[in-house]
Amino acid sequence: MRFKIDENLPVDLAKLLRESGHDAETVYDEDLIGAPDPEIVALCQSENRVVVTFDLDFSDIRAYPPAEHQGLVVLRLKRQDRDHVLKTMERLLPLFEEEEIAGKLWIVDEERIRIRE
Description:
Blueprint: E1 2-5, H1 12-19, E2 23-26, H2 37-47, E3 50-53, E4 72-75, H3 82-98, E5 105-108, E6 113-116
Parallel strand pairs: 1-2, 1-3, 3-4, 4-5
Antiparallel strand pairs: 5-6
Helix pairs in contact: 1-3
């Protein structure tokens, strides 16, 4: 699976995903720090990448209809420190193998994952 890690997440998340066999890049890799959301989304669409972010704007299905994307993963964590984010994503890794992400919005918190199509 191909992922794009937004600037509001630890860059170590890309390393975690790569070590799990995924293709992961950060917005830092492509010098997109501060780029507007539509630019990041357009790049992800052209590269067939799943967006992973804290940015709640991506959970607005009117602005970002899931069917038009390779996948959107929005983290809604109470704690946003590096270790907590990585631990949460480790919990998701097996699900990435079992569940389809393309065309869906995943909203992830500490206790559950909501998936919208």
